[in-house]
Amino acid sequence: MTASRSTTRKSFRREGEDKRREDLIAATLECVAERGLAGATVREIALRADVTAGLIRYYFPAKDDLIGAAYRAVMNRMTVQASDALKSAADDPRDRLNAFVKANLGQPIMDPNNLSLWAGFIGMVHADPAMALAHRDGYLGFRDELEALIREALLAAGKPADPIHTRRHAIAVNAIIDGLWLEGCLAGDIFAEGELAETGIAAIEAVLAISLNPEKGGAI
Amino acid sequence: MTASRSTTRKSFRREGEDKRREDLIAATLECVAERGLAGATVREIALRADVTAGLIRYYFPAKDDLIGAAYRAVMNRMTVQASDALKSAADDPRDRLNAFVKANLGQPIMDPNNLSLWAGFIGMVHADPAMALAHRDGYLGFRDELEALIREALLAAGKPADPIHTRRHAIAVNAIIDGLWLEGCLAGDIFAEGELAETGIAAIEAVLAISLNPEKGGAI
DNA sequence: GCTCTAATTATGCAAGCGTATAAATACACG
DNA sequence: CGTGTATTTATACGCTTGCATAATTAGAGC
Hints:
2 copies of one chain form a homodimer. Chain A is mainly alpha-helical. Chain A is built from 9 helices and no strands.
């Protein structure tokens, strides 16, 4: 046994399955944030997670599964962040809707990194049915939550809230939020702090014909 | 000269530079439409254009240049289609804005293929400054055109149209159009024919507090 | 009809990709 | 303190990719 090892093998720690999955997903998001979906290669992700590439396949059958998990994680994180804003700030439904919109149109949801992953995914939706399903679930879930908020806000303002109109309102308000979120993520630097959130609130107030600031301003 | 050629060389025709570029861009769009940006490889594009891969580099220094040209072509095409709708249908500014919105929220602009290319691009914007520039130009151009339409529509309805409010209105209306376009491209099948366009018109009327159907309905 | 050149094909290369698999090792358990 | 196993590393394979370059040829101009 006189031979000396020319290279030392990487030392490592065993981690819990959940921890590793989370780390790998976090590393994936870092890659996407910095170089887009194309930059999220198996090797680069492993490097970020301080792990060797083979381990990824131990936790995810294929790379697409990791990417899909990362997408779901981001969407879920955004959903949770928006819901948190609801919990912490409201009893009047109009305040709740107001807080929901402001949360979606401010940090940390309105962030270029989120957009990069979202866009990369959307680009695959058309070609990959599995991802299309993942997307539609997230979209409808978001819109349903929004529709419930709108219904309550309308009722609190003494307005009718029949399903047909409420649905249409939800579609329009969803578009306003999505569109402004997009603008902010893509070119946040050309807008003043809070400008997009204010614009969104004002537009939604106009569409629903109610005030979302019931304490300060009266109902329209 | 008894030797026979084992394989015959591909016959070809020389084409004008413009024609070839257009063909290559069209082939690129086909690839993106079918399999997403990732499916738009140099070899696949060449196959579609009935050309060998090397020729692409003769017209485009690098693949990214072709992709960028394809992006610009699509955005330009959509812009032209929307502008055509303006020319063919209007003298009252409110009708013009109405037509503009309807055009952007209907065929052929609201199309999954357009979205695929757009999304793939947006995903790269964050990482590639050149593409970021290409995008911002297109975005600001679109918004400027929209802002002009809005200003005229407001004035025609006897409403004030000072720059500050007009800008904010343009941001909001742009968000509505973008958001609904997105929804329609992603899940057009869950909406009735023309539903998104109607929803968009109604939302924009509410935001601007004017009617966009001056012949039938009066101003609000 | 010849010639010259620009357009096109054909071939190959080096790099990077995702994936497979065997060897090594940390660590829980007795 | 061993021992077994789940976790992790290491290595390599086959494929695809974008790009370079040499050979060919279509077609314009004289």
